[in-house]
Amino acid sequence: MAKVAFIGLGVMGYPMAGHLVNSGHEVTVYNRTAAKAAKWVEQYGGQSAATPKDAAKGQDIVFTCVGNDDDLRQVVLGEQGVIHGMHGGSVLVDHTTASADVAREIAARIKPLNIAFLDAPVSGGQAGAENGVLTVMMGGEPADFDAVKPVIAAYSRCAEL
Q: pLDDT per residue over 74-120, tens digit each?
């Protein structure tokens, strides 16, 4: 099973991260509201971290699911962002419904670090997240998609075109 971090425990991220644990993955979460992360750990197990950077350390895959472009920039590129904790060969999967501009910006910043990026907004709403049947639209390199597909299957319906 994969070692993963999940950044953002909102109405979508909270159950998505839970499905990862229920599928046997080793999960570390980060949420701006520490009490919400503590509640998640109490409910699902796993671990929480004090910063996105700390959550990302040693992980194979880091998932982000936050509110908007500015939130995404902060948790990825900020002083305590995941970019400072990830290692070469890992994959950043962004589930935020964010702009193409911020996706390109992040991809360009992490590529020299040998970190892969997948722009992966989700569809299906809160019910889809809770029931583990989200649709994930992936943008990125096919090999990177292949690497994360078995992991995202925990909370989505996987299909290839």
A: 999 999 999 999 999 999 999 999 999 999 999 999 999 999 999 99
39: tokens are 């509640």
H or E element: which one contains 151? helix 142-152
Q: What is the pTM of this model?
A: 0.96
Containing 110, the helix (H) or strand (E) segment is: helix 100-110
| Cα distances (angstroms) measured from residue 1 to each of 19, 23, 25, 100, 120 | 13, 8, 5, 31, 21
Strand bridging mode 3-7 / 26-30: parallel
- Contact of 110 with 117, CB cutoff 8 Å: yes
Number of H helices, E strands in the chain: 7, 8
Cβ atoms of 157 and 134 within 8 Å: the answer is yes
Return the SS3 of 31. coil
45 Cβ contact partners less than 8 Å away, ≥ 6 residues apart: 21
What letter would DSSP give residue 91? E
Which of 3.40.50.300, 3.30.40.10, 3.40.50.2000, 3.40.50.720 is the CATH number of 3-152? 3.40.50.720
What CA–CA distance (Å, rounded) separates 161 from 65?
24
